[in-house]
């Protein structure tokens, strides 16, 4: 079977891509604006370059056409923190995907604890094993409601027990597999 993307609608393209390009890491992004901490997961996320250390995350717009809070905060403030979730954080990750008003914090509503690690960046999820502190580089207009956003990694937080003496990092990040999550080789809805 050949699926001709020129004949598919956006939902069919998304379904095809999200169910074939996997597993995908999840960028669980904290951003801030006016003392409100926003936390949202994005599964269209991948490394782009190691020198400079760039990543790209595709962030959609709200149904009314406005940028999602995460995108608006990143563009306005120039920074964000990407947290990696592990299996103990799966329910928090799912909860944080719920749409909330801009003046509501997923961290407060769903009792997701954060901690401030670097003064110039939004807080990270307190129980995350790894976080990337990133600076906004630019968005790439591709003519859709999604806006690929390029970020440069400035610093990385790692819990001591997840990096060995040779510098190898051992994490158990949750990834996206279609509509399911990949956790230690176990899929869960």
Features:
single chain; 189 residues; alpha+beta; Pnp Oxidase, Chain A; 7-stranded antiparallel beta sheet; 4-stranded antiparallel beta sheet; 39% strand; globular
In a nutshell, what does this entry contain?
This protein is of the alpha+beta class. It has four helices and 13 strands.
How large is the count of helical segments? 4
The CATH superfamily name is Electron Transport, Fmn-binding Protein, Chain A
- Summarize the biggest pleated sheet: 7 strands, antiparallel
Inertia-based shape: globular
Number of strands: 13
* H/E element order: HEEEEEHEHHEEEEEEE
Please give the domain count: 1
- Strand order within the widest sheet? 3-2-6-9-10-5-4
Can you describe what's shown?
By secondary structure, the protein is α+β, with helices and mostly antiparallel strands. It has a single domain (23-188), classed as Pnp Oxidase, Chain A (Roll), CATH 2.30.110. 16% of the residues lie in helices and 39% in strands. It has 4 helices and 13 strands. The chain is globular and about 50 Å long. The two termini are 27 Å apart. The relative contact order is 0.20.
């Amino acid at each position: 079977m050949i699926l001709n993307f020129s004949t598919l609608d956006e939902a069919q393209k998304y379904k095809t891509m999200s169910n074939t390009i996997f597993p995908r890491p999840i960028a669980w992004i904290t951003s801030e604006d006016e003392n409100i901490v926003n936390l949202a997961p994005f599964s269209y996320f991948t490394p782009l370059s190691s020198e400079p250390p760039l990543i790209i995350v595709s962030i959609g717009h709200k149904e009314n056409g406005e940028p999602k809070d995460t995108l608006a905060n990143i563009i306005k403030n120039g920074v964000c923190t990407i947290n990696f979730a592990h299996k103990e954080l799966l329910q928090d990750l799912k909860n944080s995907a719920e749409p909330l008003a801009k003046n509501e914090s997923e961290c407060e509503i769903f009792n997701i604890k954060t901690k401030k690690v670097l003064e110039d960046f939004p807080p990270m999820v307190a129980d995350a094993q790894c976080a990337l502190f990133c600076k906004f580089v630019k968005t790439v207009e591709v003519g859709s409601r999604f806006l690929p956003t390029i970020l440069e990694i400035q610093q990385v937080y790692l819990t001591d027990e997840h990096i060995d003496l040779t510098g190898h990092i051992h994490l158990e990040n949750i990834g996206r597999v279609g509509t399911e999550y990949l956790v230690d080789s176990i899929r869960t809805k």
